[in-house]
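The authors assume throughout that readers already know how a fold can be written as discrete tokens. The format is easy to grasp once an entry is in front of the reader. For illustration, here is how one protein appears when written out as sequence plus structure tokens:
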Amino acid sequence: MRTTGAKDTVSVLVIEDDEVIGRHVEAGLRSHGYAVTWTRTGGSGLTEADRLPVDVVLLDLGLPDVDGIDVARQLRDEHPDVLILILTARSEEIDVIVGLDAGADDYLVKPFSLTVLLARLRAHLRRRPPAPAGPGEPVRIGDLTVDIAARRCRLGDREVELRPKEFELLAVLVRHPGEAVSRESLMAEVWDENWFGPTKTLDVTMSSLRRRLQAAASAAHAPVALPDLTTLRGHGYRLDPPRPLDSN
């Protein structure tokens, strides 16, 4: 493990056991002003993520000690705001979906170019909102309250923990209640207008968002009015007002 770069730059943790790829990524990121920590096992990567302030994790799936999918899940659970980009030689769609569903924000299939990696990083970092200057007005629809400025979501009296992209997706929809929002608009708002990855990322994130909200509703002590995240086939999504609690 080595740590390089200034503390006031974006901090990147590279978890990659391949010597050639690790050195190449470390040198390339360092030359573009990133602070880089490179480690070669999943266990040491999790230790470094706990020890250091980390903004971005570049995670190889084929690690020698533990599967990268398990590392992604633990990173997402313990560090919900970190940006996770998977580096993988597994190009099958199911592997990509499993990685995204485990908490990754994006992926690159090996071999990849440093230029593309840097472009992906810039795109994701541009979409990260700055810390709010002051409190904003929360949006409430039914029993769902979304405080965009504070990045908090509540259902009834319970706080709902959302991953960064899940929250950003919900924030776009609550700003347009009852309106159809196209897939293209959602990808541009939540990911980047120059996004060139698969739009399957949107579907995976939406499915995960639905599960978290439904789990929170099921765990509530009393019935709650949860808005509907409606799929508009061939177009996008819409946030509909909740159905009456006594409806079938």
